[in-house]
Automatic annotation (TrEMBL):
This is S58 family peptidase. It holds the Pfam family Peptidase_S58. Belongs to the peptidase S58 family. It comes from the Bacteria. InterPro entries: ArgJ-like_dom_sf, Peptidase_S58_DmpA. It comes from Phyllobacterium salinisoli. GO terms for molecular function: aminopeptidase activity.
Length: 361
């Protein structure tokens, strides 16, 4: 499904060039799929990121994560930290659906690998979450295993952003949040060019904090929200999940360093990694795979030198910030449980925002 052109183009973050889709799927072989539930009080869904089209359990990819603030209920991070690999697609959903999606991932792996957990090792499901309970009746636990399978079946290189999939019920800075994505090309001193892509599940931030392309517009946003029924009081209780993909040949230690730099892009938007916010970043590389089967040879890969990582760090920060901007720009107004609603950012602020364009900044 093609992306729609925005009536007001978002600012282009930084000086690096974006890929043709300006999305995480500009990293070759990466695909993204959604399953969206939008029916009255049920406003939720599932989003999956597939690192490659094969069996990820059999051909694992190197990965690492950084927990910026650990107020979260994700599953699978401990083994990723220990072994430095992904064994399933990366799944995003709401807080109360983590167990259901993990079970769906296990069933998916067992169906493809009947000896999983018997002759073969058990699989490590990987599910991230944010709390969409303001817009979604999270207690209904409407997400089923089929929704995960549907999201995987829908995965492609072109995908919708905004109030879709896991982002359907999410809120950011007092307005509608959700799924956002971006990419950057990174020329390296060794003569190579690599791609970095980011995908975010944006559900964080107080209105007064919002900074857009270096411009502090939070106070104006807060004033406008104060005149509506959407004024936000009390401490921040959101979260953000930051997924980074690259085709650069990196090991798990280097990927952890990349994941940490996603926090720089997050901070630029105004986040202070609030007490009640689960802020988690994960980075993976598609440059090679690591076999599950001990009888297969390990890859002979020359890793990128640490001294050449700075352009990738820049690309991570810029694409993360851009993805958060896109999550606001692409989201539509949503009305959910008990009449709760979050207005689309552009509906509320379009007349305030200068004539931003992808070329002007």
């Amino acid at each position: 499904m093609a992306l729609k052109h925005d009536p007001v183009l978002p600012p282009h973050i930084g000086g690096l060039k974006a890929g043709p889709r300006n999305a995480i799927t500009d990293v070759a072989d990466v695909t993204v799929g959604h399953a969206t539930l939008a029916d009255g009080p049920i406003q939720t869904g599932v989003t999956v990121v597939l690192p490659h089209p094969g069996d990820i359990y059999r051909d694992r990819v190197p990965a690492a994560a950084t927990v910026l603030n650990g107020f979260g209920k994700s599953i699978g991070l401990m083994q990723v930290e220990e072994l430095g690999v992904l064994e399933t697609p990366i799944a995003l959903t709401n807080t109360f659906s983590v167990g259901t999606i993990a079970q769906a991932q296990i069933r998916q792996c067992v169906a493809a690998n009947p000896q999983c957990g018997q002759r073969l090792p058990t699989v490590n499901p990987l599910v991230f979450e944010c709390n969409d309970g303001y817009l979604n009746d999270i207690q209904a636990m409407a997400i089923a295993e089929q929704h995960y399978r549907n999201a995987c079946a829908a995965a492609g290189s072109t995908f919708v952003q905004g109030a879709v999939g896991a982002g359907r019920g999410m809120s950011s800075f007092g307005v509608k949040g959700g799924i956002g994505s971006a990419s950057r090309y990174t020329p390296i001193a060794n003569g190579f060019q690599y791609t970095v892509g980011a995908l975010v599940l944006s559900n964080f931030g107080r209105p007064s904090q919002l900074t857009l392309a270096g411009r502090r517009i939070g106070p104006s946003l807060e004033t406008r929200l104060a005149s509506t029924t959407q004024a936000q009081n009390g401490p921040e209780k959101g979260s953000v999940i930051l997924i980074i993909a690259t085709d650069a040949p990196l090991d798990a230690r280097q990927l952890r360093r990349l994941s940490l730099r996603a926090g720089a892009g997050l901070a630029r938007t105004g986040s202070v990694f609030g007490h009640g916010s689960g802020d988690i970043a994960l980075a993976f590389s598609t440059a090679y795979t690591l076999p599950q089967d001990v009888g297969r040879a390990m890859p002979d890969i020359a890793m990128l030198h640490d001294a050449l990582l700075d352009p990738l760090f820049q690309a991570v920060a810029d694409s993360t910030e851009q993805a958060i901007v896109h999550s606001l720009w692409r989201a539509a107004t949503v009305v959910g449980r008990d009449g709760h609603h979050r207005q689309a950012f552009l509906d509320l602020m379009a007349d305030y925002i200068p004539a931003f364009s992808e070329q002007s900044l």
